[in-house]
Amino acid sequence: MGDCVSAIFAGEEKDSELPIIEAVQAASISNVMMSVLNFKFIKRWGVNFKEIQAGIGVALGRALVIKAGFSGSGINDLIYMVDVVNRGI
């Protein structure tokens, strides 16, 4: 396992189709860009270059987002608390 990058696509429940479409489009574009980068890197550094590999997944569910931080510290970050963010296959 390695690092993780997450994206949250928010929408109202009544018109929930739009965030799903955006999430699938983002996953598709990410996959294509990874292929383009691998092609360019191999072209530049040869066949001995180890290709970039990543798993791309899309999950649907509700997410609780809260702001958290220590009073007076200037830290006021968003925290995502749900299983959707870390759902594995």
Topology (SSEs and partners):
Layout: H1 17-45, E1 64-68, E2 77-81
Antiparallel strand pairs: 1-2
Structure in a nutshell:
Helix content is about 35%, strand content about 10%. It is of the alpha+beta class.
| Number of domain units | 1
Task: Give the uncertain stretches in residue-range form.
Answer: none
The protein's oligomeric status is single chain
Radius of gyration: 18 Å
* Coarse structural class: alpha+beta
Largest sheet: 2 strands, antiparallel
Strand order of the largest sheet: 1-2
**Please, what is the average pLDDT?**
80
Give a count of the beta strands, DSSP E runs of length 2 or more: 2
Characterize the structure shown.
This protein has 1 helix and 2 strands, in the order αββ. The chain is α+β, with helices and mostly antiparallel strands and 89 residues long. The two termini are 13 Å apart.
Relevant terms:
89 residues, flat, 33% helix, two-stranded antiparallel sheet, alpha+beta, 2 strands
